[in-house]
Amino acid sequence: MSSTLPFVHQVPKNACVSEQIPFVEYLHLAPTPHLVAHQCTSCGARFFDRRNACASCFGTSFADADIATEGFVRSFTIVSFAAPGIPVPFVSAIIECDGTSVRGNLTNVTADPEHVSLGMKVRLTTYVVGADDAGTEAVNFAFEPVS
Ligand SMILES: [Zn+2]
Question: Number of C-alpha atoms within 13 angstroms, CB side, residue 42?
């Protein structure tokens, strides 16, 4: 018997097997996946998109703020109609993460009112949206129930 495994793909030790890039700018994958908001240094308001000025106080200075990866469902809707190619139903929700509201979809839960409820505890998780020819994966986030 040969000691080589015929079906195991051999890759050089230093090769980057599957590089990952975040699907949205405010998702950071390292050291563990978490969201980062732009926090106004004057009033503390947080924004996930890039701002020239704070919508609350018109301050123009922002600092990065790590967002808690666990929270609870503050509001949700079960989406039954979507563009072609998007599987329905799915749950679109507002998650309260230690004082910061985050819009995201729920995953790993049945999308019906029996399985989703206000106040339900959830945590951040990630999934691969797709990969390009070089094997680089685009990673997006969602929230899943804390069991
Ligand atoms: Zn502000």
Answer: 9
State the total domains in the chain.
1
- Which residues are near ligand 1, the ion (C-beta closer than 5 Å)? 40, 42-43, 45, 54, 56-57, 59
- Please tell me the number of Cα atoms within 13 Å of 37 on its side-chain side: 20
- For residues 9 and 20, give the distance between their C-alpha atoms in angstroms, rounded to a whole number: 20
Letter string b/e over residues 14-24, b meaning 16 or more CB atoms within 10 A of that residue's CB: eeeeeebebbe
pLDDT single digits (tens) 30-54: 999 999 999 999 999 999 998 999 9
Whole-prediction pTM: 0.83
Q: How far is the CA of 85 from the centre of ligand 1 (A)?
A: 39
Phi-psi group of 11: left, alpha or beta (phi > 0 → left; psi -120 to 50 → alpha; rest → beta): beta
72 falls within a domain = yes
Nearest to 90 by CA among 69, 104, 70, 73: 104
Domain that holds residue 84: 20-145
